[in-house]
Design a protein that fits this description.
Elements: H1 19-24, H2 33-43, H3 46-78
């Protein structure tokens, strides 16, 4: 069976073929995300919720810290 004939591929939209198309096309929002997230949040106990929020904060600190370090390195190289 060819790939085009596969029934699982019929529901998927074609991906943009160029890099410019990848930047200017708009993805459809995932309608299943929020209900699934809310059900998983409701199943979590207090310790799980605290761990989730702390993980978000640590990830944000690492992300913005790395951006700051890259900025410092680039400014040192330029100046």
């Amino acid at each position: 069976m060819r790939r085009e004939d596969d029934p699982s591929n019929k529901n998927q939209k074609e991906k943009p073929s160029s890099l410019l198309g990848w930047f200017v096309t708009r993805e459809e929002p995932d309608k299943d995300f929020m209900p699934e997230f809310q059900s998983q949040w409701a199943k979590m106990n207090l310790a799980g919720r605290v761990k989730f929020v702390v993980g978000i904060l640590v990830g944000a600190i690492l992300f913005f810290g790395s951006l700051y370090v890259v900025y410092l390195l680039l400014s040192a190289m330029a100046g």
